[in-house]
């Protein structure tokens, strides 16, 4: 039957679909004779991220917004601020009456001296976390990729990404609780115009529980801003977390809160609509996320070799084979195709303070290729990425 | 009522920010209403681009040019209250793909349309779950597209069209109190945009269609009379609801120019003689539909360009694939 | 240091189950495994030659939230890599792991689940062993917190964790590979290296620590390595189960 022998050559796109693992492996480990460099199927070097661009402030009905594109993955983030009056908080009057004086002192201290800005705010964490002042949600039901049914409740992936964003917002303490407080200073009733210093002393007396007459003079928190941070992944081509986090970060940097004050007569919070009076959020640091995938040359064969070598043995094998054939590649910013081929993932979030790299989150899961040395390299790549993302965010 | 699959805000709920100017009486701020700078038959520019979402079989992104007032407030921001807003939406098409096993046999392509506002799309925060108006829009869009697609070419297959609205049109100017004339006028602009974008995305997915269907909006509006003008109602194309004091009636059509066919028509409001107060033929419902069709013709030219671009990209891809 | 206690197969109707109690973090977990099972109605989604691993985490007192989906993802990543899903009878079937947090400090909406994670992982492992699911290796996991002064605390209580500068969860395979790392909070790489060494010593005892004698001494005080605890739990159970056979011999 030698009529029409099927052609043995396949176009690359077909080969990529039929034998994805072999296709990527062939790109990463070209035959020594071909003199080609080891490169990913998408043309990137292993530690190279996709082209990233960011654009902020283009959505009209948001307090801050950003569109971040990392290659073909696009995340749109909009921040909407709404008011939470303390009267609506069930536990507020019980749990916070005593802390008001501290709040005021905190405020005075902050307004007095700039260097105390960095001072730890004892209520910072508890206010943001306990009152749910930051509400991030990520949606994948936008038709961003086949397989996410629009209209269905958030998939497990979307839920866990939302959780990761929330967790990172809390653990990095990115947003200051002070920025979210709406204060009310009742007009002083007594004729004696007390100096602030004196007022504070007076309050110390109050703290000892002698009297409550001065209650009207204390500044009190009348409301909080609640930031609804919604991320729509408009297009998904791998690595949604990096793009989503960059979008959240860029949108928060863009966020302006109007000047809000307590209207005693109407008992509501009234905001000034003047742009000049609105203020930006003072964020703590600039944590940047970088994700990685580990591609293993023998992943398909791995399940047959039930006996996995010891970590020590493996290290020796690896060192011996260092000059020879590489067996594992750590791929930065994996696209959808590479994500499907790598079981082991890592995500590192770094920030830089005074030139020093601070890791704020480091995860690895799904395999045992990444350990001490490899993780160290991953952190170094992430630190380089931080510079890159910083300049992108500062330009927009 | 907490949603366990999402992160919830404070249990007591939150209130949208109240801005000081909106507390004043309506008359004192009516001067702030943005004015339409375009001619009655002049359309806003449409930005339409296909193929931005590679994982979908077809996709389109559509954006309306901000109206003059919004553009002004963007370039030199004074107030935090946006004067109006401009439609921005992304549309993806997935398919044709086999129907799930559980579905019954269908000799035609089964069309599913899904329109969702982003929570930050409108002046009022939208919920995460589709509300009645979003479902309504989906049904209208499905009707508009069903008449265009050659459905019998794909038996036992499904086509999912998903639209995410990133920024919607306003229903009225923010300074106006809701009144009896009030209707979700902004929704009609949104639908017109959805039809045009979906049409581009379907063409980008290379689904056979009878023609490129485009959406257009026209409305009969009555404004406060400017100096030396009569205050009689006027027919306007592509109205931005924030620019008009009251919209008497509006119409959105999905129109195929080459066949001169309308696949979807949605008329809203009161356009009877009594309410218009004139016997003017140019303000009847036929004139309104004609106006909407004209607006759709305008959108069609943009659509053609976008689809041409998509076809060129596809041709380039094929060529590149063969030579590689 | 009071070590964790565990028992195998407390539930009669599941294929395998385990209960696990860690006194220092106060966590108390009950887990069950059903494998291999037919997963109905999702034949399209199943991998053709591999088992599908599903993990469900149920909270005790706190309302369910998105955090559990995240933890489920982590546990699936860890055990999914160890389960030999291509063994006979497992292809196109499912391994369903259900973990219920029955006691201890409840985790709030925003809290990280990191302090609970080692207990959840150990329960999942023991339940898998109890259900005789083929595994390529076993593993052991621990959580460490680092406070502002750099002091490393093993398995911190909720208060210590709340005050900590960073929290780290590490899991090591029985062959000494780093299988999982989840670190949160500000730290630098040197700190992490120390944490890794300490964690490795907790899981495997001093032999793998190597040169640093100091840390080895501390770990001896920490008591038995976790690896050994898990091994003994399983050995005890096997002894009980095969008592008739051993006695007869």
CATH topology-level fold name of chain C: Ribosomal Protein S5, domain 2
Point out poorly predicted stretches of chain C: 208-220
Oligomer state equals heterotrimer
**In CATH's first tier, which class of chain C applies?**
Alpha Beta
Number of strands of chain A: 14
Order of helix and strand elements from N to C terminus of chain A: HHEEEHHHEHEHEHEEEEEHHEHEEH
CATH architecture of the largest domain in chain A: 2-Layer Sandwich
Strand content of chain C: 25-35%
Spell out the helices and strands of chain C N to C: EEEEHEHEEHEEHHHH
Q: What percentage of residues of chain C falls in helices of 4 or more residues?
A: 25-40%
Report the radius of gyration of chain A as a whole number of Å: 27 Å
- Derived from helix and strand composition plus strand pairing, the structural class of chain A reads alpha+beta
Structural class of the secondary elements of chain C?
Answer: alpha+beta
Explained architecture:
The complex is a heterotrimer of chains A (396), B (324) and C (249). The longest helix of chain A has 24 residues, at 372-395. Chain A is elongated, with a radius of gyration of 27 Å. In chain A, strands 1, 2, 3, 4, 5 and 6 form a 6-stranded mixed β-sheet that branches. Chain A starts with 11 loop residues before the first helix and ends with a helix. Chain A has 396 residues and is α+β, with helices and mostly antiparallel strands. Chain A is 32% helix and 24% strand. Chain A folds into 2 domains: 13-43 and 290-394, no CATH class; 52-284, 2-Layer Sandwich (Ribosomal Protein S5, domain 2), CATH 3.30.230. Chain B has 324 residues and is of the alpha+beta class. Chain B has one domain (40-173, 183-320): GHMP Kinase, N-terminal domain (Ribosomal Protein S5, domain 2), CATH 3.30.230.70. Chain B has 6 helices and 11 strands. In chain B, helix 3 (132-146) crosses helix 4 (185-204). Chain C is of the alpha+beta class and 249 residues long. Chain C has helices at 67-82, 117-130, 158-163, 189-204, 213-222, 226-241, 243-248; strands at 5-8, 16-22, 27-37, 52-58, 94-103, 139-146, 152-154, 166-173, 178-187. Chain C has one domain (5-209, 217-247): GHMP Kinase, N-terminal domain (Ribosomal Protein S5, domain 2, 2-Layer Sandwich). Chain C contains 7 helices and 9 strands. In chain C, strands 1-2-3-5-4 form a 5-stranded mixed β-sheet, with helices on one face. A 4-stranded antiparallel β-sheet of chain C has the order 7-6-8-9, with helices on both faces. In chain C, strand 6 and strand 7 (152-154) form a beta hairpin. In chain C, helix 1 (67-82) crosses helix 2 and helix 4 (189-204) packs across helix 5. The radius of gyration of chain C is 18 Å and the shape is globular. The termini of chain C are far apart. Chains A and B meet through strand 3, strand 4, helix 6, strand 6 and strand 9 of A and strand 1, strand 2, strand 5 and strand 7 of B. Strand 3 of chain A pairs antiparallel with strand 1 (15-16) of chain B. Chain B: Residues 1-41 are annotated as: Disordered. Chain B: Keywords: Cytoplasm, Exosome, Nucleus, RNA-binding, rRNA processing. Chain B: This is Exoribonuclease family protein. Chain B: One of its GO terms (molecular function) is RNA binding. Chain B: One of its GO terms (cellular component) is cytoplasmic exosome (RNase complex).
């Amino acid at each position: 039957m030698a009529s029409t022998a099927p052609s043995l050559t396949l176009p690359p796109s077909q080969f990529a679909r039929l034998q994805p693992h072999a296709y990527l492996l062939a790109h990463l480990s070209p035959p020594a004779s071909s003199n080609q460099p080891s490169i990913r199927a998408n043309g990137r070097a292993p530690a190279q991220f996709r082209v990233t661009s960011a654009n902020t402030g283009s959505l009209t009905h948001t307090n801050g917004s950003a569109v971040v594109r990392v290659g073909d993955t696009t995340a749109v983030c909009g921040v909407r601020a709404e008011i939470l009056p303390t009267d609506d908080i069930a536990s507020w009057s019980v749990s916070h009456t005593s802390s008001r004086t501290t709040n005021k002192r905190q405020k005075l201290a902050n307004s007095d001296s700039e260097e105390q800005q960095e001072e730890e705010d004892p209520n910072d964490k508890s206010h943001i976390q306990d009152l749910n002042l930051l509400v991030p949600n990520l949606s994948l039901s936008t038709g961003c990729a086949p397989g996410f049914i629009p209209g269905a409740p958030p998939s497990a992936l979307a839920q866990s990404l939302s959780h990761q964003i929330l967790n990172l917002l809390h653990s990095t303490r990115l947003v200051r609780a002070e920025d979210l407080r709406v204060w009310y200073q009742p007009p002083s009733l007594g004729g004696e115009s007390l100096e602030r210093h004196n007022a504070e002393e007076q309050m110390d007396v109050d703290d000892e529980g002698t009297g409550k007459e001065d209650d009207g003079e204390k500044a009190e928190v009348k409301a909080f801003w609640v930031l609804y941070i919604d991320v729509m992944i408009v297009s998904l081509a791998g690595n949604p977390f990096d793009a989503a986090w960059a979008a959240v970060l860029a949108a928060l940097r863009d966020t302006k809160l109007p000047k809000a004050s307590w209207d005693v007569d109407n008992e509501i919070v009234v905001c000034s609509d003047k742009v000049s009076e609105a203020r930006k959020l003072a964020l703590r640091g600039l944590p940047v996320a970088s994700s990685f995938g580990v591609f293993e040359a023998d992943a398909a064969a791995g399940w047959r070799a039930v006996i996995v070598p010891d970590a020590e043995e493996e290290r020796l094998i690896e060192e011996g084979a260092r000059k020879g054939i590489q067996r594992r590649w750590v791929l930065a910013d994996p696209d959808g195709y590479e994500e499907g081929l790598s079981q082991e993932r890592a995500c590192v979030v770094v920030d830089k303070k005074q030139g020093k790299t601070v890791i704020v989150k480091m995860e690895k899961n799904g395999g045992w290729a990444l350990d001490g040395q490899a993780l160290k390299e991953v952190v170094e790549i992430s630190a380089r990425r931080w510079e890159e993302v910083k300049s992108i965010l500062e330009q927009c | 009522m907490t949603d366990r699959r999402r992160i919830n805000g404070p249990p007591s709920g939150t209130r949208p920010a109240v801005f000081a100017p909106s507390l004043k009486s309506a008359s004192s701020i009516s001067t702030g209403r943005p004015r339409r700078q375009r001619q009655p038959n002049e359309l806003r520019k449409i930005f339409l681009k296909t193929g931005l979402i590679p994982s979908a079989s077809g996709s389109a992104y559509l954006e309306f040019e901000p109206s003059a007032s919004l553009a002004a407030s963007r370039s030199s921001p004074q107030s935090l209250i946006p004067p109006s807003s401009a439609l921005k939406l992304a549309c993806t098409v997935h398919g044709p793909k086999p129907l799930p096993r559980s579905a019954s046999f269908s000799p035609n392509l089964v069309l599913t349309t899904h329109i969702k506002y982003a929570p930050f799309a409108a002046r009022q925060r939208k919920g995460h779950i589709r509300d009645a108006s979003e479902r309504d829009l989906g049904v209208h869009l499905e009707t508009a597209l069903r008449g265009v697609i050659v459905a019998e070419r794909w038996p036992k297959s499904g086509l999912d069209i998903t639209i995410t609205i990133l920024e919607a049109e306003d229903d009225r100017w923010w300074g106006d109190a809701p009144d009896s004339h009030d209707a979700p006028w902004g929704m009609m602009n949104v639908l017109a945009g959805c039809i045009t974008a979906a049409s581009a995305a379907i063409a980008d997915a290379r689904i056979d269609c009878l023609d490129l269907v485009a959406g257009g909006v026209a409305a009969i509006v009555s404004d406060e009379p400017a100096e030396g003008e009569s205050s009689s109602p006027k027919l306007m194309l592509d109205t931005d609801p924030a620019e008009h004091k009251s919209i008497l009636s509006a119409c959105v059509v999905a129109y195929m120019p080459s066949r001169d066919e309308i696949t979807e028509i949605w008329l809203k409001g009161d356009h009877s003689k009594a309410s218009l107060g004139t016997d003017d033929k140019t303000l009847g419902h036929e004139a309104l539909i004609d106006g909407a069709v004209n607006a759709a013709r305008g959108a069609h030219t943009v659509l053609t360009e976008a689809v041409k671009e998509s076809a060129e990209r596809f041709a380039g891809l094929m060529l590149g694939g063969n030579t590689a | 240091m009071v070590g964790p206690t565990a028992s195998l197969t407390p539930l009669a109707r599941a294929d395998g189950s385990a209960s696990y109690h860690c006194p220092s973090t106060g966590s108390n977990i009950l887990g069950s495994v059903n494998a291999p099972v037919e997963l109905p109605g999702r034949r399209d989604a199943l991998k053709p030659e591999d088992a599908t691993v599903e993990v469900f985490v149920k909270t005790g007192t706190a309302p369910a939230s998105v955090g559990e989906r995240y933890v489920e993802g982590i546990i699936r990543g860890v055990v999914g890599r160890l389960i030999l899903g291509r063994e006979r009878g497992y292809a196109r079937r499912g391994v369903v792991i259900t973990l219920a947090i029955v006691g201890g400090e409840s985790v709030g909406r925003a809290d990280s689940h990191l302090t609970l994670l080692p207990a959840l992982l150990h329960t999942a492992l023991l339940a898998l062993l109890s259900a005789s699911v083929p595994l390529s290796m076993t593993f052991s996991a621990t959580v460490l917190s680092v406070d502002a002064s750099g002091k490393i605390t093993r398995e911190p209580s909720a208060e210590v964790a709340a005050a900590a500068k960073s929290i780290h969860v590490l899991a090591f395979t029985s062959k000494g590979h780093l299988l999982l790392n989840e670190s949160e909070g500000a730290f630098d790489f040197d700190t992490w290296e120390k944490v890794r060494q300490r964690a490795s010593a907790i899981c495997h005892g001093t032999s793998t620590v190597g040169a640093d004698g100091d840390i080895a001494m501390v770990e001896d005080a920490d008591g038995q390595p976790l690896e050994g605890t898990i091994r003994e739990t399983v050995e005890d159970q096997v002894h009980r189960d095969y008592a008739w056979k051993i006695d007869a011999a």
